[in-house]
Amino acid sequence: LAFTAMADEKMSDVAAPVDNGMDVEVRERLDGLHEKLQQAKTLHSLNASQAEILYKSIIAEEWDGEEFNKIKEQAICKLGELFADLRRVDDINKLLIQIRPFFSNIPKAKTAKIVRTLIDYVAKVPGAASIQRQLCTETITWCTQEKRTFLRHRIQTKLAQMLFEGKDYVGALALVSELLKEVKKLDDKPLLVEIHLIESRTYHQIRNLAKSKAALTSARTAANAIYCPPILQAQIDTQSGTLHAEEKDYKTAYSYFYEAFEAFNSQEDPRAIISLKHMLLCKIMTNQADDVPGLIDGKNSLKYAGPDLEAMREIAAAYKLRSLESLVATQEKFKPQLAEDPVIRFHLQTLYDTLLEQNLARLVEPFSYVHIPHIASLIKLPVADVEATLSQMILDKKFNGILDQGAGALIAYQDAPENATYETVLQTIDHMGRVVDSLYTRASKLS
Asked: What is the H or E stretch that residue 377 is in?
């Protein structure tokens, strides 16, 4: 036994230097790759072609090991970012195909992260939406062939989001419906939250508010069962605020938008300014336009100063003045900031209709008979628009009168004083009927 122990000790003494030598060699190689990656990052914005060569040389390395895989992952993502900066979308597609063998060496979650990152880089290139959708479709096909269900579900979710943004609502709903059947069986709650959110937004855009609220409720239920990241929770709050605003519950909508703004702002997400604009819109719609300048000049809002917030400031000023002309002028002046947001566009139309009715009611109040072209000249709007609005006001019983289309005039009637006699007679008849019914019941018992 003593001899065996001595022999083992000698063998270990001989083997140790060899292992140490291998460790040194591995360490030197990894340090070399780290240095090359840092050099490429430095040259990223200074010399793109040289940075590209360095990134590609790292990606071309054939080796295995956790630390090496991390270096290679960084090189792949940085090369994809470089191609996006140079607007070389086809090269991103080629890179995604080239690195597929590498995916067998890393966990499926990291594979999904790399693929989604590269697809997101394509979205940064203007006019590349169709290429991005094609890239998603090709990746889904590859995932199906390789039986990578985890990644396929996430790319399909990304594709559904892109179809929604491209206003292909039918395609988005079809894909979401297919996804929900599969994902519910797997009980993948984080992905379920994302899918239900897309479903809710899509139904909202096609004005099916009942199904939109149902999908949002499902998203909240799934989110309550897991840890929900701040950004995802902010997206849920944003959608909740949007649906409450649809129901004219602007106070509740404001609280949701505020929560979303706080989360986006803390994460330095660019969507924070959208939530801030929606907050300001809610203040205007609740007749609190005086609060808008204070919110815009607040500490948290100062870094978002720009045309978006100036547009909301001028909308608030126009609302305070009850000036349709100022409201229309502001919408034309800040068209990109106001018209491109569907929520603001919809509610500004509601605000416009409200102000138009208020202004028309004020203008026709002194008249019992007035020509519509005269009212149109006073309010500085087309005759057809004024006539259509007056007609709707009469139908909604907001104005007591009729339109004489032959003469092109509005005839106003005085509001008749309320006569309580009719209501009193109806109540009396109702009470007498109950008395007769009661007497009949008692008489039936006597007989």
From this structure: helix 372-379
